[in-house]
Amino acid sequence: MKTYRALVIEDSATHRKMIEGMLAKSEDGKFEVVAMDRLDTALEQFTKERFDVVLLDLMLPDSEGIKTFERMRAHAGRTPIVVLSGVGDVQLAAKAVEEGAQAFLVKGETEPRQLIRAIRYAVQRAHAEHGEWESPMFHLAQQQFLKAAHLMGLDDNIRERLLFPQRSLVVTLPFRRDEYSDVETVFGYRVQHVLTMGPTKGGIRYHEDVNLGETSALAMWMTWKCALMRLPFGGAKGGIAIDPTALSRAELQRLTRRYTSEIITMIGPDKDIPAPDLGTDEQVMAWIMDTYSQQVGYTVPEVVTGKPVALGGSLGRREATGRGLVYLIAEAAAHLGMNLKECTAVVQGFGNVGSNAAKFLEELGVRVIGVSDVNTGIYNESGLSITSLLDHVSKHRTLLGYKGGQEITNKELLELPCDILVPAALQNQITGENAPNIKCRMLAEGANGPTTLEADEILNEKGVFILPDILGNAGGVTVSYFEWVQDTQNYNWTLEEVNNRLHKVMIDAFRRTTLRAQRDKLDMRTAALIEGVQRVAEAKLARGLFP
Ligand code: NAD
After folding, report:
1. Which of 229, 458, 476, 532 is the most exposed place for a label (fewest CB within 10 A)?
2. Is the pLDDT of residue 384 over 90?
């Protein structure tokens, strides 16, 4: 659940209390409120702390009318301002909106739900207006690419061409909540980074932080990943800025179907093929496939991958990312002379990727001593039972309350001494701040973008062996490719066939990457990136420029 920091500037103690009370009960996001009764003290506070939103009464003891708004706006920069207006001041509030306030609310007439929605929308709109591309993740993806481009001496024209995605679609879409009169409007995205290699391919993410920059970063990584694995796809990504855990199944279905119809002109089995990512699963893919099929009038299983097997999904797709990562860990351990039966592992994130990685590591005899999810970490030095953790999560939907180990924070988890650390949750988890305290020998990235550039340098200096994300989590897209091939040929493979082919593709990419790293004295991340970028550059040059 997203946390909003709100600065409330309101001189009436009764209204301040009412607003704080409404925000405290919110189920749509958590609110941390700082309340002030004068503009001068509020402006001072604003320079000391970061806020996501300002709720502003225009009639204060030290400032009145539109001047109040103008003074606040001069300090607020890009932070959205929602004006709190008295019943008789609506004209004034409307003037503030004309001058750039995101919304206004009439005090005494505002329901808690309206207040919370107004804040959520104000934050989203301000972001959309000011900088959809402004995202630390997109900067990371671009920095990594530019570093690789420089080291490989990439042609200038191609470098510019690849720095931004080729096609981006931003949509706003409504969907009905279970409370029939409630309609939510949310932002959705689909980005195709490179169309040169064949259809584009990439997951769909439901998370409150999704924006154009993040989606573009993920699409760019998909391009390099597909090229590194030698799959005939360019990179794409999509998503909706929403917390899916706050939705009922029926709401999730309505949202997914509407999103699909909004992006339907972009997707298709020969154009762009979505797959699951953070916050989406087989069921979401089934709804996308059904919505698409209803529109074209016949069943098109190959429009998405990561579907249920009964709809043409591939055996082995669900666990492919975790399985592929563990194939690589085994290969890397052999390369480094590590005996896996004597190794310990820590896994951050216990969703699709993390739980499967933990399960396959346990099968290889690795002692998994720590796991975590968004709510908690669990640590047991003598080793956790993954079967019993999975059992707990299937009953409770979280690791919270698991008795077979000691509770720790995600921060502590990442810094545990271990041989293999697997980040399999979110981006930006290993940063310049915690990298000096990371104590693993091997970092096996299941998540996309878990390590910042600064952290990367620290870990490389410490001699940590890194399986970078575009290689580490490529098992997912590889079996997605197998699924697409099976669907287009109407011919299903056995699980053994899927896993054997996955193993072959993963190990081949690992060997090419280590070879390049050794030959050109590069770190593994840069070597993997160059492997991918070079293939795309070759394809672009071979196709030439139209017209
Ligand atoms: P998921 O939704 O199934 O699981 C995510 C897990 O991370 C959950 O256990 C969640 O509780 C946990 N989490 C969320 N926020 C956290 C936080 N702040 N701290 C700690 N844990 C947190 O998602 P997934 O499909 O397993 O994806 C995880 C990562 O792997 C993402 O970065 C995704 O892009 C990447 N990835 C997934 C696939 C795939 O096939 N699913 C393929 C390639 C890459």
Report:
1. 458
2. yes
- Residue of the CA atom closest to atom 14 of ligand 1: 374
Question: What are phi and psi for residue 368, nearest 5 degrees?
Answer: -85, 110
Strand ranges of the sheet holding 406-408, from the earlier edge strand across to the other edge: 406-408, 377-379, 367-372, 344-348, 420-423, 442-444, 465-467
Sorted by sequence, the CB contacts under 8 Å of residue 411 that are 6+ apart come out as 434
Residue 48 catalytic? no
Answer yes or no: are the C-beta atoms of 173 and 186 closer than 8 Å. yes
Q: 377-379 and 367-372 as β-strands: parallel, antiparallel, unpaired?
A: antiparallel
Q: Decide whether any atom of ligand 1 lies within 6 Å of the 478 Cβ.
A: no
Residue 538 CA to ligand 1 center (angstroms) comes to 33
Residue 385 has which token pair?
Answer: 């039972």
Residue nearest (by alpha carbon) to ligand 1 atom 36: 447
Question: What pLDDT is recorded for position 17?
Answer: 92
Query: What's the CA-to-centroid distance between 205 and ligand 1, angstroms?
Result: 10
pLDDT (mean) for 149-177 = 95
Write down the pTM of the prediction.
0.89
Q: Residue 320's closest CA among 307, 306, 309, 308? A: 306
Ligand 1 site-directed mutation target among 280, 317, 346, 352, most atoms within 8 Å of CB: 352
Strands (DSSP E) found in 312-372: 344-348, 367-372
Assess whether the C-beta atom of 449 lies below 6 angstroms from ligand 1: no
3-state helix, strand, coil in the chain (%, to 5): 50, 20, 30
Task: Tell me the CA–centroid distance for residue 39 and ligand 1, in Å.
Answer: 42
Ligand 1 midpoint to CA 55 (Å): 34
Q: Is 171 left (phi over 0), alpha (psi -120 to 50) or beta?
A: beta
Stated as kind and residue range, the H or E segment containing 56 is strand 53-57
- Strands 59-60 vs 3-9: parallel, antiparallel or unpaired: unpaired
476 lines ligand 1 (CB under 6 A): yes
Outline where 102-238 has alpha helix (H).
Answer: 112-131, 136-152, 156-162, 212-228
Mean pLDDT for the chain overall? 95
Residue 365 has pLDDT above 80, yes or no: yes
Q: Which residue has the tokens 């004068």?
A: 38
pLDDT digits (tens, 9 = 90+) for 423-441: 999 999 999 999 999 999 9
435: three-class secondary structure by DSSP = helix
**DSSP assignment letter at 451:** B
DSSP 510: H
Ligand 1 atom closest to 354 (CA): 26
Residue 210 has pLDDT above 80, yes or no: yes
pLDDT given at position 195: 98
Using one digit for the tens of pLDDT, what is the confidence trace for 229-268?
A: 999 999 999 999 999 998 999 999 999 999 999 999 999 9
Whole-number Å distance, alpha carbon 446 to ligand 1 midpoint, is 8
Q: What is the pLDDT of residues 262-305, one digit of tens each?
A: 999 999 999 999 999 999 999 999 999 999 999 999 999 999 99
| Alpha carbons 453 and 420: distance in angstroms, whole number | 20
| Per annotation, catalytic residue among 201, 237, 307, 540 | 237
Return the bridge partners of 273, or none.
Answer: 201
